[in-house]
Input
Amino acid sequence: WQMLSKEKIYSIIDDVILESKPYDAKVLVLSSGIGLSRFANSEIHQNVFEDKTEIIINILDKTKSIESATTDYSKEGLQVLVAEMKENLSFIPDGDVPPPLATGVEEFMADSYSTELERLYTVENRCKLIKDCINTLSDGYLAYGALTYSEERIAVGNSTGLKRFARFNGVEFSALVSSD
Output
């Protein structure tokens, strides 16, 4: 699978901020991919993958704000959503002054992503690892569990030019062995 790149995520943020003008905006992008291999009765019985990206947009006026979330991150989809948000902002009653947008160093990145994990835990390798573990069981024992590889990307940006990006990946293994 192919996760969204930092450049693509920043492009989404930039497009939303541009479409939000003349209002200020802040954009949060949450993107994750999970590869799951399950096994029961000492047999692999499921390999699934989920790729989920959510965009949370907050548009701010002097005394009001509106927030919306979407999983449609196409340029056209975001343009329609932001236009609807700007239109709906006029119907929201004035309220408290929204907190100011964060400022600071324009870009900050935290990267604890391991290409070695990505290489080691492909669907084929997860299945081979599970099979190798199951093959170590003595007769009369059965294994149940899951091996999961996950990737996460989180980014935020706003109208002040501030951008933050983090990416990481990890592996989880859970197993239960029982006698028959």
